[in-house]
Amino acid sequence: MRSSLAPGIRLITSFSRDSWYRGFTLFLTFLFYTSYHLSRKPISIVKSELHRNCSTVIRPPNLNGTNNETWCDWAPFDQDNYQTLFGAVDNSFLVAYAIGMFISGIFGERVPLRYYLTTGMLLSGVFTCLFGLGFYWNIHSIWYYAFVQAMNGLVQTTGWPAVVACVGNWFGKGKRGFIMGVWNSHTSVGNILGSLIAGLFVSSAWGMSFIVPGVIIASTGVLCFFFLVEKQGEKNITQLTALCRTAMLVALYQQEDDEKEPLLQNSSSNEEIFSSPDQYNSISSEPDLEQTQAISFCGALRIPGVVEFSLCLLFAKLVSYTFLYWLPLYISNVDHGLDCQCSFPNAMGEHFQSVCMLNVGCVSAGGIVAGLVSDQIGGRAFTCCVMLIVAAPMVSIAGLCLCPVGMLLVCGALVNGPYALITTAVSADLGTHESLKGNSRALSTVTAIIDGTGSIGAALGPLLAGLISPTGWNNVFFMLITADILACLLLSRLVYKEVRGWCGHSPRQRG
């Protein structure tokens, strides 16, 4: 009786070699950017420990000092201006991130992405740990914490352009929206894990809330150095090794009986793993593509759609980050018949945690839905515009105090759907736009321009909300609605072009 190939082996070999590389690259980049977000999250959790309500804390009997109101706080955040100091720390990161993003993409096109990502994650780990070491070194200078956050913001810019470029190198436009929408959930996973890890140590030794995430992102940097394959041409060495091994195996199997033959013939992946000399010749010619000159900053701006999507993301991120930073304060300050037990900035309150988790879930769902729909209809701009249009009345309903939590979560999904789509699939599409004539060395620069412009909105949104909120929460929501409308208007030309394409007036294009 002829033996058959084991089902598990048959399943494994049913995938081509490229499929395995794609899946492995997708998993690694997901892991890498999860660690980036994981290392950013501790500051929002630790704030509740740096400035506390000391009247609710039992004071140790052997503690010296006479100030009963601030004895449990961490200087310099023990003063009345602690909110201003927290804002300085946050803005140090956001402003440095926004400025550094424009520079990061230029370096990303000219430095191997594997080295670039590795260096960025190692340095991010160093600066994240340095913030936590302030606890053990007993540092009480606002300049130290602001400087460390600013440097961390700069090195964190290495992540997004590089991982989007890696995924864009491996996946075509066909299902890029859905795949990158699911892949973009690394943001939510990183935020959740970062909150949980920071929460484990925040009450006992808040320095560990930074050190542990710092060690994690540094470890993933080492993983990146040893395992990342940034583009298809880099697997040539492995394929050439397989060629040599194949020659030896073929010589051996020729001496065996026919029962051994299915192991070589029934696998669909063998056509790719066991390559022919013709394929070897094509492989050796691939590096010619690497000689293409990297695109300039101004050249990237001239790609059709880059400016529109960048400015659209500025307003979308303004709304998104205003929700992120001000949702807890809004819920705790405005009573809409909810049993709200949280008190800002006590980020470990149960009510805040439940709302945060629901919000993160909706954000992930918004990105996946936006990617799937845009793949099906072939219109990235149209999908973004529709979601932003629907988001505007949702924001107004939430501002009128009608079912605020549910509406805010829906708003989060509607706003973050376009945000996720623009920073992933749209960036990858524009980085491989037909006007580039095959030049693949534009992905990182385009991604950096789009996300860097969006990061300006991320810094402006919470700042404007802080200035406007004393005049009333309704005014904050009017600001968000205005930003939504402006984001839609900026995409109007691209939406018109896509609709004309569907009507047969011009070629139908994505991105």
From TrEMBL:
Any Pfam family from its record, for instance, is MFS_1
UniProt keywords (A-Z) are:
Antiport, Endoplasmic reticulum, Glycoprotein, Membrane, Sugar transport, Transmembrane, Transmembrane helix, Transport
Which one GO biological process term can you cite for this protein?
A: phosphate ion transmembrane transport
**Can you tell me which family this protein belongs to?**
Belongs to the major facilitator superfamily. Organophosphate:Pi antiporter (OPA) (TC 2.A.1.4) family.
Q: Please report the record's description of how this protein sits within the membrane.
A: Multi-pass membrane protein
Q: Where are the transmembrane segments?
A: 20-38, 85-108, 115-137, 143-171, 183-202, 208-229, 311-331, 351-373, 385-415, 476-496
Protein encoded by which gene? SLC37A2
> Looking at the UniProt record for this protein, which Gene Ontology cellular component terms does it annotate, in alphabetical order?
endoplasmic reticulum membrane
- Please identify the protein, giving its name as recorded: Glucose-6-phosphate exchanger SLC37A2
Q: Which PROSITE patterns match?
A: MFS
List localization entries: Endoplasmic reticulum membrane
Molecular function per GO: glucose 6-phosphate:phosphate antiporter activity
